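Hi U.,

Before I forget, here's the chain from the pilot set. I'm dumping it here mostly so it's searchable later in email.
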Amino acid sequence: MALNETLRPRQVRWRSLNWSEIIYRLYIVMVLIFIFLPIVVTIRYAFGTARYFVWPPTGFTLDWFDKAFHNSLLIEAFQNSIVIALATTALATVLGTITAFALARIAFKGKNAMGVLVLLPIVTYGIVAAISLLIFFNSIDFERGLWTTIFGHTTFLFPFVVVVVGARLANFDVSLEEASMDLGARPVRTFFDITLPLITPAIIAGALFVFTLSFDDFILSFFLIGNTNTIPTYIFGLIRYFMTPEVNAAATMVIGISMILAILMGAFFGDIKEIY
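Structure:
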């Protein structure tokens, strides 16, 4: 009797679902499988013992990670990716925060047009942006390398900071700043004591977003990096000719870093929602 009472609510919930809801849920499951199954397979091959790709993967080993850590070209590519991502994050965060403040707090002619232009890189097709920058640097005879890649990443990623910080400023309670200045605080102190602490989660979230996109970027890096490599371009170069589980080990490390950054980004976005 008790078992039937326990199962009855589940049966009622199942019967209450119509076919559209069932199809929608199946569709969501299929999309998630389509997205994450290749990642799971890549990670599994990274720990497999076979030198060539055979299905199903056999054994368990960390040898491919050891070879990846002792691959000087891979280490150099990883260092380049970190340097580019850090420099891009610093520049894009500063530029994006300043731009967000200008759009949110300053009234000037052409403000709406500037807002549209700032967000234009987000909707620009990646390869078009990369080719445009490549033509620009070739026209001024500027050698491609880390600096050109940092410039390209900053140009097309700082709008993400503008969006995140701008959304926070749009919902900012200006009366807090007014109360601070009414109590005798100067505008500079009001900014550092009131405004900056309240928008810091948005700034950090935008910075993490930029770092993740810059670290994983392939299209801009491929056209602008020149004779050196980043992690995505290095892995692309390997799989064009001969792919070994060492590539999967490198890809697994990149996936791990990206997942950590995504978790941190989600945590800071959660803080922003709590502030709202």
